[in-house]
Amino acid sequence: MTDHSDPPAGSVFAVMALFVVVGFPLVGYLWETLNQVMSADVNPGRVLISIPVLLALAGWVALLARRVRRWST
Fold it and tell me: What is the largest CA-CA distance in the chain?
């Protein structure tokens, strides 16, 4: 059997805080864009900017998932 040791709590907290600090503005920007589109106030420039922001958020969540998976094994 493989020895499994949990990561230090401070390390987990620091990484999660980093993911929240970076991810929060991305989610906020996309949320506001979706809100404007749903209220029929479409700004094409904002929608165009939202595409790379959405891709960045997806990549950020994938990195988080990889990190959490590494902690659990």
Answer: 59
Give me the helices (H) in the chain, please: 9-38, 44-72
pLDDT of residue 37: 94
Q: What is the pTM of this model?
A: 0.80
- Sequence-distant (≥ 6) Cβ neighbours of residue 27 within 8 angstroms: 57
**From residue 57, how far is each of 3, 21, 60, 64 by CA, in Å?**
34, 12, 5, 10
Q: What is the pLDDT of residues 33-46, one digit of tens each?
A: 999 999 998 999 99
28-48: string of b/e by CB count within 10 Å (b at 16+)? ebeeebeeeeeeeeeeeeeee
What angle in degrees, to the nearest 10, is found between the helix axes of 9-38 and 44-72? Answer: 150
Residue 1 pLDDT more than 60?
no
